[in-house]
Description:
By secondary structure, the chain is an alpha+beta fold. 39% of the residues lie in helices and 13% in strands. It has three helices and two strands, in the order βαβαα. It has helices spanning 14-23, 55-62, 66-78; strands spanning 7-11, 30-34. β1 (7-11), α1 (14-23) and β2 form a beta-alpha-beta unit.
Amino acid sequence: xxxxxxxxxxxxSSVVVEQMRTRCAKLTELEFHVMDACALQFPDNSFNVIxxxxxxDTVLCEAEDPPAAASAAVQEAHx
Length: 79
C-alpha cells in the first residue's frame, strides 16, 4: 500500500468487513464499510480512483437482473 492514502473498501457482508477490520487494524490508511455497490452511501465526487476487485463478477452472477445491477454499480462508481 505504499504511496496510497485514504483507501476505502466496501462489502455487503458485515462478517467480511469485521474480519478485514481486524486483519488490517495496523493499516490506518484503510477503512471498511458494509455497503451495496449498487447504492453507495458516499457523496458525489468522493473518490479520485475506483478499483473494482470482482465486484462486477459478483453482481453479474448473483443479481436477479444482472445487466441492470451491473449498470447500477457502474453508474454509482461514476458519480
